[in-house]
Design the sequence.
């Protein structure tokens, strides 16, 4: 197994919008187990679950995953990832958010490869072209504004970039949905957690805006195969419908 990659899944039990969601079952497996198994299946590195709650640690042990208890005071998922990874040696730390149960091996591998191959990138992520138009106005679906080479210019819960009716590009440029994964070079992770939250981050509740304000380079792999995240209780039904459509 490669030794340059560590996957860390921040799994906060006390989610504000959906408490305990990481342990909610989907087709007989808790949300966090789906994510752990996808990371493990890549064969790219070890996987840790980072949580503030003993119930998640116990559940992880039940399906053979390594889990560590982190402070309940972590301000963000990335702060939790850093606490879990700070005594490790892997130069690439991949934050796989604990609400993406159907994240694919392809997505995980693409983010790792982007970090390995593009030395300009501080943080690698992924996004998908939006095909469900309801995602454009859904604030739980984060939109990514991309520049040349997949460089992220902004992320928002609002419909951005605006497609002006007079623009010659209004029918040619896609909307992109951001996937909850961040691949950090260790130096970038250490820099990020030392930065104070910025105003756009606090307004949108999107921690990646802190990195952009600080001039850090975020690039996104544009992929196919979007899948539902678990943000609110109603998303559990969407998850089951997705599995059914996939024949699983």
Sequence:
């Amino acid at each position: 197994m490669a030794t340059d990659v560590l996957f860390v899944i921040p799994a906060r039990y006390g989610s504000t919008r959906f408490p305990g969601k990481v342990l909610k079952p989907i087709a007989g497996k808790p949300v966090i187990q789906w994510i752990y198994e996808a990371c493990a299946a890549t064969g790219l590195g070890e996987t840790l679950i980072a949580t503030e709650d003993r119930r998640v640690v116990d559940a992880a042990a039940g399906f053979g995953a390594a889990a560590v208890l982190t402070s309940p005071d972590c301000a963000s998922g990335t702060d939790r990832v850093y606490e879990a990874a700070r005594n490790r040696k892997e130069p690439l730390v991949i934050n796989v958010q604990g609400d993406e149960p159907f994240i694919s091996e392809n997505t995980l591998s693409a983010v790792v490869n982007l970090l390995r191959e593009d030395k300009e990138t501080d943080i690698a992520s992924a996004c998908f072209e939006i095909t469900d138009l309801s995602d454009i106005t859904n604030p739980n679906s984060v939109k990514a504004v991309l520049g040349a080479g997949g460089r992220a210019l902004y992320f928002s819960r609002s419909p951005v970039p605006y497609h002006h009716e007079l623009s010659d590009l209004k029918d040619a440029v896609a909307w992109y949905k951001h996937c909850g994964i961040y691949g950090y070079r260790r130096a970038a992770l250490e820099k990020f957690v030392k930065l104070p939250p910025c105003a756009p981050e606090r307004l949108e509740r999107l921690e990646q805006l802190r990195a952009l304000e600080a001039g850090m380079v975020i690039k996104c792999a544009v992929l196919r195969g979007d899948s539902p995240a678990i943000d609110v209780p109603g998303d559990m039904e969407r998850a089951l419908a997705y599995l059914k459509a996939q024949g699983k």
The mean pLDDT is 95. Residues 153 and 160 are 11 Å apart (CA to CA).
